Amino acid sequence: MLTVALPKGSLLRDSIRLLQSVGLDFSAFLDSSNRQLQILDPTEKARGLLVRAQDVPVYVEYGQAQLGIVGDDVLREKQPRVAHLIDLGFGGCRLSVAVKESSPYRRSLDLPAHGRVASKFVRCAREHFQKLDLPVEIVPLYGSVELGPITGMSEAIVDLVSTGRTLKENGLIEIEILFESTARLIANPLNYRLNNDGLSDLTSQIREASLATV
Asked: Which of 54, 76, 131, 158 has the most crowded Cβ, counting Cβ within 10 A?
């Protein structure tokens, strides 16, 4: 049976809508009274797993799910061993460097050497500053990263930005964009090569459906 790993959070609704367009219905995950983390499609041809976005590629890499939908930001940070199949086009956001609006910094290179940058995207942040040859301390934070500059713990943050509203409400501004991110369809490489559970045909259907919504 085909298993699809779906991300909790902002990508879930569009992911479910896309899969519905190719005949897989996991809309029960949208029911606030439903606490199930694993459900069957009504046709009983597929199973859906509802997991944290950061865990989607883990389930796919280890074969507990043949397919998954996750943001490119997670893939760049985790660098899992999965097959990258389709840019689905929704869930657009960007990974950016941000600082206090009142600070003198207006680009990454303005930050002081050996200053602190808070982020949950530790790998991506480190790679960004290494490319600039600017030594900084990356402080891992997994909650409200915006508090780093506000409290003075860090000079800057590297975080996902969608509308920019959260930054603005906390007196922060973007000074540099590392990359843009959208939702991606990924697959377990072995299952995809073997075309288990008709993965090739389903992937083609999802590609057509995603293009139709652009």
From this structure: 158
